[in-house]
Design a protein that fits this description.
binds zinc ion, 420 residues, 8-stranded parallel beta barrel, TIM Barrel, single chain, alpha/beta, 2 domains, globular, two-stranded antiparallel ribbon, 11% strand, 19 helices
Length: 420
């Protein structure tokens, strides 16, 4: 199972000054900052997934400045990302950012141009996401919304054009057909249609909100018609506990930002270990935290008191880590600052105590924890939060590799037929 990390230009500055919370003078992002595959000893993923809407910008997508975009087009994806040999790249359209439109705002030719200019290894056909799932439609218990049927038809039409144009232009990347559906039968219909068009790689989209049992039901239905030579990619799905089942059903790759994003988006699962996840220590930077600043301006909080509590939390946590301060002192300092910064009145003392007691960052062998240790445990600013995300990617990939079939290198050029 190959794991792809979707790009959203997440890098860290290896020279960031954690004592003063600032970049060094003359810091240049493109030159100095590093991707997760450069920070770790070994890349924590098999490849990256790059979306056209992320690069060119559309709706909610778009993370590239004009300068970065030009640089990417000029250098190609391998040189731009400084990818090590063997790392693969999947291109996609980023259908979710235009999900509100009636039709995809990109043409098949534009998308093929994008893939060819960047030099991706595999390119996914133009698709239109279906926002809904209802197995009752398969039993005719409930009518299928018109909009879902239209979106599936659009996706399959574009896939036919994409395959034809790919062949006509003699493109160098492998075409991957996008399958959209709303139930096991509708996904299976899409896959059947795509393999009849000639696709040997098929990406299943729109499954992110589905329960695992629903994903597996779709895969089982697809298996009834799937040509054994056809392998599947799951878009946006991690769920490592189901890899063996996914693999049995012909899934050979997937992509997900979850391990990375949970580091700073999740309420609880911020710091991964092989056995469990922990809540990171919230020490927001008071001078750039909008909520704190707002309450200081409104006269509800005193700037000096806030600053002192923040400094004390940082000091106490670092002292505990260094063995010069006590656990209780660190928990108390975090709590004292939490009373000021947490507007929802939460008390995370028990979970902080738990995390501090275990000190997993001191034992983690990944390059991030070795180098930055306790700083990664703090939920504070993008440099720490992204590092924790990169640590999570590493842990996630270790778990995944543990469940991978023994042979990893060299990989067969053509996917092997599955022996049941
Ligand atoms: Zn680590």
């Amino acid at each position: 199972m190959d794991f792809y990390f979707p790009d959203s230009q997440d890098q860290v500055d290896p020279c960031f000054d954690f004592v003063n919370d600032e970049h060094r003078p003359f810091h240049v992002r493109q030159r100095d900052d590093r991707y997760a595959h450069e920070i770790h000893d070994e890349p924590p993923y098999d490849g990256i997934l790059i979306s056209k809407t992320m690069v060119d910008g559309y709706g909610t997508g778009g993370r590239y400045t004009a300068a970065q975009r030009h640089r990417l087009y000029r250098l190609g994806v391998r040189e731009f990302f400084r990818l090590p040999a063997g790392m693969k790249v999947i291109g996609d359209c980023g259908a979710f950012s235009y999900v509100a439109e009636e039709e995809p705002p990109v043409t098949v030719s534009e998308v093929i141009d994008f893939y060819e200019t960047l030099g991706v290894d595999e390119g996914i056909s133009v698709d239109h996401a279906i926002l809904g799932y209802n197995e009752a439609c398969d039993r005719n218990d409930e009518p299928t919304p018109e909009d879902w049927i239209d979106r599936q038809a659009i996706t399959l039409e574009r896939a036919a054009d994409f395959f034809a144009e790919h062949r006509e232009r003699n493109c160098s990347f492998t075409p991957m057909g996008a399958a959209q559906g709303w139930s096991p039968c509708s996904y299976a219909d899409s896959v059947q249609h795509l393999q009849e068009l000639g696709y040997r790689r098929i990406a299943l989209g729109g499954m992110v909100p589905l329960k695992s049992i629903e994903i597996i039901a779709c895969l089982a239905k697809i298996d009834e018609i799937r040509d054994p030579e056809v392998s599947l990619h799951l878009l946006g799905i991690s769920r490592p506990e189901h890899y063996a089942t996914f693999h049995k059903h012909g899934v050979r790759s997937l992509d997900s930002t979850s391990p990375f994003r949970q580091a700073f988006k999740d309420d609880k699962d911020n710091y991964y270990t092989s056995s469990r996840n922990f809540v990171a220590l919230r020490i927001p930077p008071s001078d750039s935290n909008a909520r704190l600043q707002g309450r200081i301006r409104a006269g509800k909080l005193d700037q000096a008191t806030v600053r002192a509590a923040e400094d004390e939390a940082l000091r106490a946590v670092r002292a505990y880590d260094a063995g010069t301060g006590s656990l209780l002192e660190a928990v108390d300092a975090l709590r004292a600052y939490e009373i000021l910064h947490d507007t929802k009145g939460r008390d995370r003392s028990a979970t902080y105590r738990d995390f501090l007691e275990v000190k997993p960052w001191a034992k983690c062998p990944c390059a991030i924890c070795r180098e930055w240790g306790v700083e990664v445990a703090m939920f504070r600013g993008t440099e720490r939060n992204k590092r924790r995300g990169m640590h999570n990617l590493w842990v996630f990939n270790q778990k995944l590799q543990g469940q991978k079939p023994a042979r990893r290198h060299p990989k067969p050029k053509r996917r092997q037929r599955e022996s049941a």
